[in-house]
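Course assignment 3, question 2. Fill in each field.
Student: A.L.
Task: Predict the tertiary structure for the chain below.
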Amino acid sequence: MPGLGLGPEAWEPTLTRLRATPAVADGVEVLTLPGYGRPASAGADLSPEALARLVLAHRGGSVVLLGHSASCQLAVNAAAMAPERIAGLVLVGPTTDPRAASWRGLVARWLRTAVHETPRQVPSLVRQYSRTTLPVMTRAMDAARRDDPTGPLARAAVPTLVVRGHHDAISPQDWTTQLAGLGAPGSRAVTLPTGAHMVPLTHGPLLAETVATFLSDLHGRRERRTQGGPHGIPREGRLAEVARRIDGHVAHLERLSGARPWHVTDTENLDAGYPYYREEGGRLVLRANERGKVLSEEWTDDVDELVRLVMRSHVMEVATKHEARHRRRGEDSRRQWFALAEEWLGAMDPRWGELERAHHERILVSHPFRDK
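Answer field:
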């Protein structure tokens, strides 16, 4: 669904790339609605809840809904009304953060964002806004700003990807992280390394890659549920699943940080202090050996937890190297890499970010920051 006032062309750069991926083998359809690509009659109800009913009436079966800006609120309300029909949500630059729901707050955030948008999109935006009309857009935005999506999203409890451009002040990072935290397991918040609020139009290929990864994960989760086994994954496939997820998260880490771990953890024991994972006695273990001696090992029965442990080590490696390259004189080095680790792990999975933050807080009780 296009954002407020926008038409199908606002999604086209993203969908052109997305349609070329296996993740959308079932096809993509752009749905325009009153205020969102189409004009509306004077008496039309443009509230997110009313428009969500039109979304559900449009097509039956299980779908993934993609929203941009204010249309994210339509997607969230539709999911809350019929969660059994919504396989997942993709929310790009979602509104409306209750902290900036007033017209003054909305305009202030829009102005801070607009300076980072490319002027090349202006002719296209003018054509799209003219088609929807400014009075209709104003009415639709007035309805959207009064709608808090956090309640419906929590009730929906479906896997949710929340994406924002790096310079999007309309949808700040703490807001997208909060929304992702309300979704079902597998939900995540991602901040792209560039772009602002109009990323479906200005950075389509980059956004498509992020969406495709999420859709592939959704497909994998559905397959695992039908196959059965512990945690929905057959025992004989657990190591392959760990490897697949690690590859995806490492690629995500590289997009977030611009760097990769020196050695991506796998099942090979290099006997040089680098972790490796195995399945032993029906359990999963992450172990590090050096010169034949066990330096550390952590056991779990859960694939998700093993992947978290692996990615935590990779994130810490990349974060500490980043801090070393950008060291701030007189500052405890942990300030930077603690914050980066929390941010990057939280972008992969909001729960991971919260766990890392709690871990750091426990460390700081006994060993507080020591700035010089």
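Instructor remarks: Residues 45 and 51 are 8 Å apart (CA to CA). The chain is about 50% helix and 15% strand.
Grade: pending
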